[in-house]
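On to my pick:
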Amino acid sequence: ATIELPVTRQLFASPLDDYWEFGPKLSVGRDYARKSSLVFSYQGSWAFYDTDSEVTADGRSIPGTHREIKAHDVRLTWRHDWDESRRWRTTLKGGTKFNVDNGSGYFDFVRPYAAAEVRYRQRPWELALEGRCSYYHYPVQTVSATDLSSRQRWVITVAVRAEKKFTKHLKVFASYALDDSISDLDFDDYVANSVMGGFGIEF
């Protein structure tokens, strides 16, 4: 069992607002054969915005107020190593996040999600393939002033990662991710391709 208390400061360029976020995280789990594990976790967090105000149910700012967001995230993670040398590992995750604002509920959402990863390790190489799926439901926000149906969004991600260790302390990696966001709002409906590369030094 572990308890954490992370504190985060988020800094954004205008027009986005900076905010502080903190809250406890509790994890309870059990290890079994070959360092496999089953872990349940809960994290509660509170976000306090510097200048952003609360908004009405139709998204209009309420002067003289400050926005706060409370979030509750529950998750179950199963990680299993399939052979004695721990070359093959699968990780399954599933849970739900709840967002609650301190005003009309305009920023409230419920987000169930699931993820699966397969990892293969044969030194000096490590390869991983991951798939993730999230569904956002906004009980207060509507699609538009003329379409009063609730805002909804699906996010589907497929990612691959390759890593090679050159020395005891140095490794390099490359990754690619495809994100498909399917939404009933035009600005939230997109496909994104992300490519990353870098190196790590361990001591």
Remarks:
- The radius of gyration is 20 Å.
